[in-house]
Structures are given as structure tokens and as C-alpha cells.
Amino acid sequence: MLTLNTYTQLYRDALLNDVIPFWQTHSIDRQAGGFFTCLDQKGNVYDTDKFIWLQARQVWTFSMLYNRVSDTSPEQSSDWLAVAKHGASFLKKHGRADDGSWYFSLTRDGRPLVQPYNIFSDCFATMAFGQLSVATGNDEYAHIAQSTFEQILRRRDNPKGKWNKAIAATRPLKNFALPMILCNLSLEIEHLLDRQLVDQTIDECIHEVMNVFYDPDLGLIRENVTPDGQFSDSYEGRLLNPGHAIEAMWFIMDLATRRNDQALLEKAVRITLATLDYAWDTKYGGLFYFMDSQGHPTQQLEWDQKLWWVHVETLVTVLKGYQKTGNQACWDWFERLHTYTWQHFPDPAHGEWYGYLNRRGEVFLPLKGGKWKGCFHVPRGLYQCWQTLKSLDLNQSATTDRPEGDLHGYFSSPPAS
Amino acid sequence: MLTLNTYTQLYRDALLNDVIPFWQTHSIDRQAGGFFTCLDQKGNVYDTDKFIWLQARQVWTFSMLYNRVSDTSPEQSSDWLAVAKHGASFLKKHGRADDGSWYFSLTRDGRPLVQPYNIFSDCFATMAFGQLSVATGNDEYAHIAQSTFEQILRRRDNPKGKWNKAIAATRPLKNFALPMILCNLSLEIEHLLDRQLVDQTIDECIHEVMNVFYDPDLGLIRENVTPDGQFSDSYEGRLLNPGHAIEAMWFIMDLATRRNDQALLEKAVRITLATLDYAWDTKYGGLFYFMDSQGHPTQQLEWDQKLWWVHVETLVTVLKGYQKTGNQACWDWFERLHTYTWQHFPDPAHGEWYGYLNRRGEVFLPLKGGKWKGCFHVPRGLYQCWQTLKSLDLNQSATTDRPEGDLHGYFSSPPAS
């Protein structure tokens, strides 16, 4: 068992001395602008396409570090801001279609490859320009974030628009991802929004996540439900995405903390623990990627794989759950997940983390970045864990003389928060 | 080592005594019409959606058996035709949109769920009604096959139509699947087409498959190429789908036999053997599902899985290659593939075959049918292997007194064909 202080250092060092330098070294396209994200084990570029999700997420990550990490050198901080601006400049120039919506992908030099069918491109662009506007005070960045957010709200009831292949009249379903991300997004750009819009969006998102998509009989969050929140006995309706549900729980915990809503916090912890019990692979360890709520075969051939983001996001959630409620089960899960994650994902030889493990925990795609993995979940998760661990550590130091090693004894009842 | 006669019996019995009865027992929806295809390990229905690909493929399979299998009872034969007509009736009533194109999927009772975005729904509908028109002489079936085929030809240059999310002007690519399937389709409904259209379609398909998608430097068939047949250094352009390429080679062998084109046969065998060398998993056995021609990570998380159809289609191809050219390497591959396939895919406990194995050959989705696996590749492959083995067996019996067990000695040089 590590001490709180050792955990804190580990997450901090991995973020600042491994992961962020990896992307600074390998991902910046100094010739055409923007970022390479398809990086092999050693960081070599194997594909030059530019995916808006990942371009925007990297802008967000570097802006966030600039905005929030203070214990660093001015040079490092200024380098982070330069990386963020480098990505933003490419996005601003090439990322949008005529109607202001964001393409899904571009060629290396910024020509559009895939139509703006995917509303999450817009979500991540909003996050990117929101954080960067905080960092710079630049009105243009603020305007891009704001207008993109408004467009997302307009599109939210029919996010796929004309690219939707489902005939909604036959089996109307709504998907969990958008309300989940809006929970987070409304806080990300709170400084740019009318207070009432923020509160209203948050109210709606909490309701959607915790009442509509949460199935009380099942005790879990469903990935798709009918418009009135009922179960649909179909592939989509039976689908569970445990990592998604658990990631959403730390967004909810942040909102609950902001509202000082202890009942909401406790509910988020309960859902987290139920999801962990359901999705933990008791044979090989790790969390499954997709499951079927009736135990039927999933459509997804990747259902039993162990993905980096699922594990990183879960570490964040259980630490926050522990910090905010003192629930010992959260801490126990943190230690179990920490052990699994650090034994399987990081690559000490070449830096950064692998993303894709098979059920046994073996790497089956030896990439550090690709079409979906970029500079986002690992650094955001490391940052969040670092901060939570630091606050637990400070709290412990301030309130007890016990040795740091005696964590279990100390935290077995809720700390006074 | 088994004798030719034993192999022949094995493939015949698996088809007639296991696989076909499994679908007759479990898949027929006597209440709403059409077929259930989502069947678990024991044949229980776990989802009732109806996918046009699989509805049509099952109609084709039962029509084909009726048309081609003569050593059976009149009752069995008449049952097969009844199953085919049962599926056709559902398809005819519910399968098409107003413009005559085929939906992708329907609810159990036939209401459209997913738009007709997928041209392969039309391809398999053409096959289904083509075979059924041979079985019945029914003009309505013939007309459906013919008009659908004409529609495919009209759509072939832009098969995804308005549902295409790629911006073709930036990186135009064409995909291997359609020309590959047209090779087969034009023969399937030859009896309904103008001779000139058949010959022209076959000419174009052979050219596309063997010259345009075949990359002579690589020695393999690419899944996507530029409009003029060049390599595109992108995820799509680097993609190899070994099972697809090898399946196409038996379509080409059939066309080459029809045209008495020995050079084309030899080329198809060469490509088959090169693909097998490239895609065989030397560590765990079996053929990979997807690969990258430069050895980079694929987009497809399922790349290292072992799929039933890949192995069944490859058995057909290597047997035909051996039958038509006598190439010993084809026979050696047949034995290796036969051993792997029969050790891993069939389920003697509950019948039929598993579809989805992980890299190690372990079942990770214990289904017999789903959204993509239905009554098609296994029975078609078993039928094709059975017929090829039978003809090899007859050929052997007619031309030698050697004992059947001595296959290797007998077939080490090309048989006089």
C-alpha cells in the first residue's frame, strides 16, 4: 500500500514528466499546423489525418494545464499556452463548415475529409475554445466557444441530423452521451454564459443522467432509452457502457459539490459502485467496455476489451467519491483500479500509455494515439487524480498526527468536509 | 489425415444434419413472418429485429439447397422451398422503401428501422429472389431480382448516396466489396439478364478485382483504392481484409473456369496463397480479420479476431484452387484450415457454429446468429466444400486404384482436368 503522498507524486509526475512531454515532443505538426495524433509505440507518426475531436481535446488539455497548474516554471507554462494556441489556430482556420458546425476530420493540411455529422466535434471545440479564452482573455476564442455551444443546444434533439440512418418514428431512442457531456460542458464555459442558461442546462442534465438514463430497477445507467426514459428491448436499449456511466458520475459529483447536494453525491457514489460490481472482470481484472443489460451477446465485437479511458475516468470517479463522501468502498476500488491500471497501461520504455488491451490485459494495438486516443483522457485523469489526492493528503496532514501509511484506519468514516 | 471420402461426408453431414436443421428449428418466425437471426448458443431468440442482409441470405440458402441438392427426400426438399418462400413473402411485403431500394433492418413485424443506406441489402435481395425464381419459375420473384439488380448498377458509383459522410472530393476512394459481390451476383441471376450485360459486368468485375484492387507490388488485394487504382496512404487505403480477398478469389475461380482461363485461375491461386501467408496467425493459428498493409495499427479494434466466415470462405477457395490447378499448397492449406476451423467453430453440444473467436481461438460472443451472422456463410461454404470434395473424390476413384488414404502422393502433381 502506498501513502497518499506517494500516490499524489505518482500522478503528478506521470502527468508533468511523462505524458505531457510525450505529446509536446511527438504530436506538434510545425509544418502544416495542428497536431498529429496517430502515434505509434515510440511516438512516430503513422498517419497524418486530423480528427477534430482530438485536435480540440489537445487544445483543451494544454489550456487547462496553463490555467490550473501553478507549481511549474514560467517557461513550461508559456510553452503549454503556445501549444494550445498552435492547435487553436489550425482549428479556427480549417475546422468549420460554412454553417459553423465542426467537421469530423481533415487532411494534414486542413482540407475537410468527413462531414460535420458528429455533434461531439462541436462539444470538444467548445471545451477547447472555452478553456483557451480563460487562458488568454481573447474575445475571438470566447465567441467561437459561445456560438458553438449555442449551435449544440439547437441541434441537441436531432444531433445526427440528415446523417441519421435510423428511422426514429419506428423506434425513437435517445442517447446518453450528449446530456452527459453537456453536464461537463456547461461548467467548462460557465464564464461565457448567462447564469440562468447555465443553471437551466445543469438542471436538465442532472435530471437526464440521474433520472431518465438511470434505471432504478437495474441500478445502472443505460446508454439508450426511449424519449420518456423507458427500457427498449433492442440491441441499443440493452446496451451498457460502464466507462461512460462512471465518467458521468464524476461530472455529477462536481455539480453536486457546487450545489452542496449531499443526496446527489451519495446517489452518484451508489451508481458508481453498482456499475463497478457489474462491469469488473472477475476472471482477468479490468472493466469491460460494453455489456448487455440482459446478459445477451452485444453487437460490439470489442465488448470485452479493456480501454485506457474507461480505467482513467474510473480512477477519477472513485477518488472523488471517496473525497466527497468518505465511502471506504470507493477507496478500496481506487486501490484495485490503480493496481490494474498502472500494471497494464503505462509504457515505461517509450512513455505515455497504451490504449487498447484485450480481455487478458495484453496490448493488441501498440499505439499511443490514433483516431480516438489523443492527448485528453490520460492527462485530464492524471490531473484530476493528482488534485483529489493532494486535497486528501492536505486534509489528512491538517487533521491527524497518524502516520500517512495508516490510510484505511483514518478514512474508514467520512472525513469532515 | 482423413480420406477424401471422409471429408466429403463430413461437410455433407454438417450441412444437412446439423446446420440447416438448426435454422429450420430455431429461426422461423411463424407468427410475424420472416426469420429470427439473433439466436444464442442453444438457438433461443434473444432479439427479434430483422436485418435485410440476413433475411435475404437465408432465402437464398434454402432456395439454393432446393435447386442444387438432389440426394435428399422430396419432403426435405419441399420443406426447404417452403422456408425460402416464407422469408420471401416477408421481404416482399416489408423490405423495400418507396423507391424500391431495400431497408437495412425492420422490426419483428416489418416496420422499417434503418434506412436503405446499405447497397448490400439490395445485393442479397437480388441473390435471394434470383435463386427463388429458379426454384419456382415465378415471374414476380424474377422481376424483383432483376429490377433490384438494375438499381444496384445505377447506384454503384455512389453506393452510400446521401448517407455518405466522407467528402469524396478531398480523398476519393472506392471500396472492394461491391465489385467483388457483383462478380458473384451476375452469375447468380444470369438466367434473368441479357447475355451482353452479364458478359460486360463480369469483364468489369474481373478487371476491378484482379487489376484495380490487386496491388502487384504488395501481392495482395486492397480493401480501398483511389479511383484509378492507386494506393492511398490513409487508414482506409492501408486496410487489408484477408477473408474478403480470399472469398473473392473463389468467385474469380468460378468465372475463370467458365471462361476456361487458366492464367486467371493461376493468378487467383497465387493471390490466395500470398494472402494466406500474410494473414495466418503463426502464434495462435487462424486468419486475422483486418490488417494494415504497412504494419501500422488498424482502426478496427477487432483486427485480431478469428471470424467464422473468413475461415469457411477460405476453405472453399483453397479447395477450388486445388481442384482447378492441382497446386499442392492449396491442399496443404486446406488441411491446416480444416483442422483449425473444425477444432474451434462448430458447437457439437447445441449445433451450428460459433462466429466470433478472439485471437487465441476462444469464443467471446456465444451466439449462433446475430446482426451479421445468419444462415449463409456456413451452409454455403459447407455446400461448396462438399461439392468440390465430391468431385475430387469421384475424379480420384475414376482415375486410380490407389487407396483413398494416399492423398498426398496422388495429388502432388496436378490432376488431369
From TrEMBL, chains A, B:
Q: Does the keyword Isomerase apply?
A: yes
A family per Pfam: GlcNAc_2-epim
InterPro entries from the xrefs?
6-hairpin_glycosidase_sf (IPR008928), 6hp_glycosidase-like_sf (IPR012341), AGE/CE (IPR010819), AGE_dom (IPR034116)
> Any keyword Aminoacyl-tRNA synthetase?
no
**What is one Gene Ontology biological process annotated in the Swiss-Prot or TrEMBL record?**
carbohydrate metabolic process
Return the PANTHER family for the record. N-ACYLGLUCOSAMINE-2-EPIMERASE
Question: What Gene3D superfamilies does UniProt report for this protein, alphabetically?
Answer: 1.50.10.10
* Family per similarity comment: Belongs to the N-acylglucosamine 2-epimerase family.
Organism of this sequence? Spirosoma linguale (strain ATCC 33905 / DSM 74 / LMG 10896 / Claus 1)
Could you list this entry's UniProt keywords, alphabetically sorted. Answer: Isomerase
User: What name does the UniProt record give this protein?
Assistant: N-acylglucosamine 2-epimerase
